[in-house]
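Quick log. Single chain, no ligands specified.
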Amino acid sequence: MEAFTRNLRARRERKGFSIAHMASSLQISEEQYNDLENGHVTPSVDTLKQLSEVLNSTVPELITDRPVQQIVQDIPLRQFSPESLSDIDKDTYIKILENQLRTLLAEKKSS
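-> predicted structure:
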């Protein structure tokens, strides 16, 4: 989550976007956006997708300090498993899976 909040703030500032602009783009309040940028809430998969579009980025670029390809390339293909990731990469991997599960559960409940 630390990489996400750092990357989100840096990318927003690099684009010259205000918190108000980001909140408006996501159709949330400034307080809700601040909670995202300060790590008080975990973003949903949909929110990550929206953020990546607004910031002209990718979801992996937002949530980790290393490109996903680099994370995967560092481990030989036949040895790749969640257990073979570093602790930081494991946290990122777990957050991605948690968000995907939340989204799937929400979709199932609304069906």
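The CA atoms of residues 60 and 68 lie 6 Å apart.
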